[in-house]
Amino acid sequence: MSPAAPYPTLIQALRTETAELHVALEKRLPFFSQQLDLDLYRRLMVAYYGFYQPLEQRLHALALAGLDQPLRVKLPVLRADLTALGLDEAAIEALPLCSELPVIDSRAAALGVSYVLEGATLGGQILRRRVAEQLGLDASSGAAFLNVYGELTGRRWKDFLEYLGDRNLGDGQTLEVTHAAKTTFICFERWLDSQEVLL
Ligand code: HEM
User: Fold this and answer.
1) Residue 165 is part of a domain; what is its CATH number?
2) Model confidence over 42-73: pLDDT tens digits?
3) Any domain includes 2
4) Which of 8, 33, 75, 177 is the most buried (most CB within 10 A)?
5) Quick check: CB of 22 below 6 Å from ligand 1?
6) pLDDT score recorded for residue 7
7) DSSP string for 58-114
8) Which of 121, 122, 127, 159 most suits a substitution to test ligand 1, by most atoms within 8 Å of the C-beta?
9) Domain range spanning residue 178?
10) Atom nearest to 181 CA in ligand 1
11) Is 127 touching ligand 1 by the criterion CB < 6 Å?
12) Is 78 domain-assigned?
């Protein structure tokens, strides 16, 4: 790999293909809205749970050799936030779960989904600050998920990009990866919309 292009085409393809979907979703998420209060934040995290719970389960059923997947499980932290926000075990178990999810039937698809879930930890850094300022929440009071990797956020992202950069995929597989990433954004937005937490 040349120093000028540390991450070759797969990451570029993912960025190009998902940029618009990211902007669209970011605009509709209510984190920076004046409407953001504790109740809306709780409903938002409940909706996140409904998506991450089934998706992460499917994602981790398919091993990506060489990636530190067990360290990237985010669901227990999200669950702990819901508990801190006042939901008990029974309430969490009864939450609605999304059933229209990206299909993860190959490692390529798993990579695409992982790109979206890993990348979301970057924006989480901004959202964490906003939620602290607006609602006074921190990692112990319901906002741990937004900072799920803590000070390792940058390191984990860099490792993930290196992992992507080391895959030698052909055009067909690259297409599978970007398709899965796009589908993840689309399914997430639809699900959040159906849960009435978007602007
Ligand atoms: C209001 C909500 C959001 C904001 C303000 C936001 C903001 C950002 C920012 C600033 C970055 C770039 C960070 C950096 O380069 O260090 C980023 C990257 C990213 N975000 Fe978000 N984000 C939001 C929500 C989301 C959500 C919900 C997802 C997916 C579920 C997501 C997926 C990604 C991905 C995949 C990247 C990596 C892009 C790349 O560099 O390849 N973001 N976000």
Assistant:
1) 1.20.910.10
2) 999 999 999 999 999 999 999 999 999 999 99
3) no
4) 177
5) yes
6) 55
7) HHHHS--TTS-GGGG--HHHHHHHHHHTT--HHHHHTS----------SHHHHHHHH
8) 122
9) 9-194
10) 35
11) yes
12) yes
